[in-house]
Amino acid sequence: MAEGDRTMLSGSADPMNLNGDHENRAKPVTGPQPMNGGNGTYSYSKNSSYQKESADLEKGKIIEEIEEKLDMKKLSSFSNTICLADLGCSTGPNTFMIIQEILEAMQRKHRSQLSQSCPKADQQYSDDHQMPEFQVFFNDLEANDFNTLFTSLPQDRKYFAAGVPGSFHRRLFPESSIHFVHTSSSLHWISKSPEVLQNKDSPAWNKGRIHYTSAPDEVVDAYAAQFAEDMKNFLNVRATELVLGGMMVMILSGIPKGMPYSEIPAGMLYNCISSSLMDMAKEGIIEESEVDSFNLPYYAASLEEMEEIVEKNGCFKIERMESSNPAAWLQNRPVDIPTLVKHVRAAVEGMFARHFGSEVMDEMFGRVTDKLLDISDLVNSRRDEKSQLLAVLKRK
Amino acid sequence: MAEGDRTMLSGSADPMNLNGDHENRAKPVTGPQPMNGGNGTYSYSKNSSYQKESADLEKGKIIEEIEEKLDMKKLSSFSNTICLADLGCSTGPNTFMIIQEILEAMQRKHRSQLSQSCPKADQQYSDDHQMPEFQVFFNDLEANDFNTLFTSLPQDRKYFAAGVPGSFHRRLFPESSIHFVHTSSSLHWISKSPEVLQNKDSPAWNKGRIHYTSAPDEVVDAYAAQFAEDMKNFLNVRATELVLGGMMVMILSGIPKGMPYSEIPAGMLYNCISSSLMDMAKEGIIEESEVDSFNLPYYAASLEEMEEIVEKNGCFKIERMESSNPAAWLQNRPVDIPTLVKHVRAAVEGMFARHFGSEVMDEMFGRVTDKLLDISDLVNSRRDEKSQLLAVLKRK
After folding, report:
1. Of A28, A49, A217, A372, which sits with the fewest C-beta atoms within 10 Å of its C-beta?
2. CA-CA distance, B129 to B134, in Å (whole number)?
């Protein structure tokens, strides 16, 4: 390990760069915060079924890729332990369900490869003596509620569980120690909102908005550049950690190429948050400058952008990359807006509360719900866009 | 991995056997609970300096054993990652300090072995290219406050950190995956208090006491048998997890062979807890039957007992085993009894609160402090007994 890599092992004293170096900034840039902890009304553990339903649309594809393209025989020939990592696992339960599916698919693949190579072997003997052990690393930010995660681990799990605290934008694991990486609903969280968004002298000054939705191109470009930089780092560190032949599955928010973000429901939601906060500023509940200085560190890339970044990195073969409609599971039912807002709140409240104060959260999310309800026809008319990306990569 | 081992991977639905099967039992037997979490007045993180001072008395010996007997060259020839585990790590900070010392000793040993085998190698080159990476697994019970542990991890650490929830009486890690185990102030916690202690028809019925201190031999024997059973399991599972040549350091409470536990300060303390609770029962604050049904799952073995258990297991070479005075760091100063009780409270409050109710904890620990202060001369006269065990084992 070179000295340059070493610094990635540890957090710096300022891991999120919250005390960055830009002169024109009124407030620190916003870095990601963990999902809401615990098991309460607005907890992620109680409000993440939408993420599960959307991710479940990709489950069959992931299993297919494992069955067709993961060489378990090769992976287990170098080590008697197969290590999986879920990056951005939050507090459960979604992480436990998908890890279980992946693990079972890997076991099936292992058995099928085993029976191909020695068809007459006694099945029970093979299972007992040749099935590798599995170790699963659940990763999220240091401030994630790991206590809730650990106390809700499945009692009948057939793997060794470990929690790994830290940002997945840095090194988390030893070199060549991981065989399978899964990350869902996480990679659209960039490491920090771009500093230039707070620079009053820049065309990228993001005044009166909390996101790049409906913003000038310069704002969108600043977000896109940060995403590209983060993904570059992410792929570099994962390439170091994954064994050759190891697989990485990424599910994240996306957008059809060239489509303005305001044309999909998530963008409409961010616009409602921006205007709710501006209304509150006008009423004196918060300061307008607080809105100007807050930028949600969230970017949805197009499939083409992702493809370009992965190919530029060069360490991974793209086994599958496609976009799909994350709301397909709703079928013909309309979006339940109050429930949707609760799900969003469980995911983003930490960031807003840290900046605007937790005392205004009920007010803010209440207004957002009302505004979204007012445009529910519009939301429902655009909910079938392909705004979810799936990428299955193999370390080469 | 045989099927029998598989069950050790996962907790059962009743991992502590809290709902065991003994008919005569009024209340569930007491299993260990984690140390007090958080950073408050009675937290372990704020009240564990005594444990650190006592463990520090062994630090030099541990480093000596690493320097003299750990073959880093051999360990790192099979893997580019060296894995350490601290079992019963609690919330910090003690775990971070000792892990750092051990890790630095291992790095020094690695460098010295490297320079012996290729004395002319450029030192910087050797460091960068041949020093293995380190991964540290911090283990404690599922209910331990891992959130406090993770948010206080050293920012400048030179290792990959992971938390592993679960009882160390069961499997925690894949086969042959760990190179060094450290456990301090933990192994005297047995997996559960013996069920027979609650059997009114047995000579081991432990009426009116919360521990075997000043109890009939049958009570002491029941505790000793549980400890022997637990240590047998502990050594078996660790033998599976440790690589050949790997080292295990255990620091735990002990007692000179044949000495009644009432003759050392810890025993005096347990007697004060028993009598405080009995006083409270007489005053109607708690029920006397509650005292009868509570038994602290804590056993201090003699060096000879430990030696016999390790030798019977047969998987480990005893590199060093000795007893010493854990209060030696006090030098000539008397024991500060209120501070001592706060340290004990941080460690055991969870178990007492779960059984007697958290509302009587202030009352109980207040009375215990008063009773101990009344016998402070006696406590101080017996504080220099060799009641701490150190065992350094090597997997053979």
Report:
1. A217
2. 14
Whether the complex's predicted ipTM surpasses the cut of 0.95: no
pLDDT in tens, A156-193: 999 999 999 999 999 999 999 999 999 999 999 999 99
What pLDDT, on a 0 to 100 scale, did the predictor assign at position A329?
A: 87
Q: Dihedral sign, CA of A349, A352, A358, A363? A: negative
- Measured between beta carbons, which residues in chain B are less than 8 angstroms from residue A172? 160
For the stretch A97-150, pLDDT in tens is: 999 999 999 999 999 998 887 666 555 555 555 899 999 999 999 999 999 999
Residue ranges of chain B whose CB lies within 8 Å of a chain A CB: 1-3, 6, 9-13, 15, 80-81, 128, 131, 133, 135, 137, 142-143, 145-147, 150-151, 153-166, 171-177
Res. A307: pLDDT tops 50: yes
Q: Nearest-CA neighbor of B227 among B160, B177, B300? A: B300
Task: Output phi, psi for B392, to 5 deg.
Answer: -115, 115
**B3 vs A128: CB contact, 8 Å cut-off?**
yes
Query: CB B157 to CB A10 under 8 A?
Result: yes
- Decide if A159 contacts A134 (C-beta within 8 A): yes
Looking at beta carbons, which residues of chain B come within 8 Å of A133? 1, 9, 174-175
Distance CA A306, CA A315 (A): 14
Distance CA B65, CA B54 (A): 18
CA geometry: angle A158, A160, A163, nearest 5 deg: 130
Q: Which of B128, B156, B171 sits opposite A2 (nearest CB)?
A: B128
Contact A165 B164 (CB under 8 A): no
Task: Name the CA dihedral angle for B218, B224, B229, B235, rounded to a multiple of 10 degrees.
Answer: -170
Phi, psi dihedrals of residue A326, rounded to the nearest 5°: -70, -15
Query: Of A70-79, A356-365, B124-133, B208-217, which range is least confident?
Result: B124-133
Radius of gyration of chain A (CA): 22
Span B218-237, average pLDDT: 98
**Does the distance separating the beta carbons of A142 and B150 come in below 8 Å?**
yes
Kindly report the backbone phi and psi dihedral angles of residue B357, in degrees, each rounded to the nearest multiple of 5, phi listed first.
100, 135
Amino acid at A96: F
Structurally, at CATH architecture level, domain B44-116+129-395 sits in 3-Layer(aba) Sandwich (3.40)
Answer whether B81 sits within 8 Å of A174, measured CB to CB: yes
Cβ-defined contact of B142 to A131 (cutoff 8 Å): no
Q: Is the peptide bond before A93 cis (omega within 30 degrees of 0)?
A: yes
A178 C-beta neighbours (distance < 10 Å), count: 24
Please, are residues B285 and B344 in contact by the beta-carbon 8 Å criterion? no
Closest CA to B385 of B254, B230, B280, B286: B254
Structural contact between residues A299 and A266, judged by C-beta atoms closer than 8 angstroms: no
